[in-house]
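User: Let's play a game. I give you a shape written as tokens, and you guess the letters that built it. Ready? Here's round one.
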């Protein structure tokens, strides 16, 4: 029986000033949308008198990313798939809360705060409850998807002529990528293997470095 092994690769890139601005905007837009969903959930739970227990996500009136673009036009400037993934990440956080936590216990820090101040914790302090992301505490990142035509001759995420291409990001030449691509292609063909097709890619600030770096 043959085993199927999925491999992932991490790269460090050297973005131009224009690309760096795009990445920072994408990080902020994904965080903005995620926080909007968290705020909508809090408002909904307060309206139904929720204190603890299972959260039915279908009852939360979540705006679609497309609808949010009408309210916040700056969201149109970023990768639309990054916004869709922010919505999916929020739903995954609620699902994780329902599945992995008892939905009635509070965090230690909030129980300690209650003893010190006498202020009782709320549902926002439940263990595993999705919280707001901040620029200070959250990892600057967003996730986008690889779009592939049916005939497979075009990918939105690809290494081509030594350039890394991402949705809505203008490519730039980096000889390190070209060398790595050629080496990887040679090694895979030598082993009778093919290139791995990318489904998703997560871009974060740590990997989009500004100093001299190579894959």
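Assistant: Ready! My guess for every position:
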């Amino acid at each position: 029986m043959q085993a199927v092994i999925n491999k992932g690769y991490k790269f460090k890139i050297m973005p131009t000033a224009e690309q760096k601005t795009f990445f920072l905007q994408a990080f902020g837009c994904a965080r903005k949308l995620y926080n909007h969903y968290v705020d909508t959930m809090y408002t909904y739970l307060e309206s139904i008198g929720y204190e603890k227990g299972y959260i039915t996500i279908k009852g939360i009136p979540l705006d679609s990313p497309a609808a949010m673009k009408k309210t916040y036009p700056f969201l149109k400037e970023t990768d639309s798939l990054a916004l869709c993934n922010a919505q999916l990440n929020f739903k995954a956080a609620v699902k994780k809360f329902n599945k992995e936590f008892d939905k009635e216990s509070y965090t230690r820090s909030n129980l300690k705060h209650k003893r010190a101040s006498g202020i009782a914790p709320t549902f926002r302090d439940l263990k595993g409850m999705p919280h707001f992301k901040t620029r200070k505490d959250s990892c600057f990142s967003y996730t986008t998807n690889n779009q592939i035509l049916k005939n497979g001759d075009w990918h939105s995420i690809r290494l081509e002529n030594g350039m890394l291409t991402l949705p809505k990001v203008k490519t730039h030449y980096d000889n390190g990528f070209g060398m790595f691509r050629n080496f990887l292609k040679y090694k895979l063909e030598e082993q009778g293997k093919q290139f791995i097709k990318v489904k998703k890619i997560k871009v974060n600030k740590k990997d989009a470095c500004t100093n001299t770096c190579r894959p």
